[in-house]
Amino acid sequence: MSTRSGPPKHLNKYAWKPAAGCKKNETEPGGKFRPLAEVSGVCGRCKDQIEWKRKYGKYKVLKEPTKCNNCGKRAVRQAYHNLCSGNQELTREGSQGIITCYEYKQTREDVQNFKEREESTR
């Protein structure tokens, strides 16, 4: 643990940039000619996390589609998403928009637990 108190010894002269020393191919996703798509279909918390990953160079683009947590088809084409576009429409709730990813996960777990309890009592 540091015993030093007060202001920092040195201030940063410029802001940190991810991959500042590396040349970037402008034709790759996230480059000048192929910008990343706008984040949609997730809750506000997940949207903030994805935007942070893009800002600080931690975002990884999907190479191939992944499985949807709801229908099981390989139809999720955006990185850090769990539902395909067809199931995103089903999760809309009234005037509040999309339910949070955590709430969706909890409701899925509750349904599975209920089915397991029902089967075990038979």
Shape, per Cα inertia axes: flat
Neighbour order of strands in the largest sheet? 1-2
Main β-sheet description: 2 strands, antiparallel
How many individual helices? 3
What distance separates the N and C termini? Answer: 59 Å
Order of helices and strands: HEEHEEH
- Helix content range: 25-40%
Poorly predicted runs: 93-98
Radius of gyration (CA) equals: 21 Å
Kindly state the number of beta strands: 4
Query: Which structural class do the helices and strands define?
Result: mainly alpha
Mean pLDDT: 77
Portion in beta strands: 5-15%
Give the structure's gist in a few sentences.
The protein has 122 residues and is mainly α.
Question: Which features would summarize this protein structure in a list?
Answer:
flat; two-stranded antiparallel ribbon; 122 residues; 32% helix; mainly alpha; 7% strand
How are the secondary structure elements laid out?
Blueprint: H1 44-55, E1 66-67, E2 74-76, H2 85-90, E3 92-93, E4 97-98, H3 101-121
Antiparallel strand pairs: 1-2, 3-4
Description:
The protein is mostly helical and 122 residues long. It is 32% helix and 7% strand. The chain has helices at residues 44-55, 85-90, 101-121; strands spanning 66-67, 74-76, 92-93, 97-98. The strands form 2 sheets. Strands 1-2 form a two-stranded antiparallel ribbon. A hairpin with a 3-residue loop joins strand 3 (92-93) and strand 4. The protein is flat and about 70 Å long. Mean pLDDT is 77; it is low at 93-98.
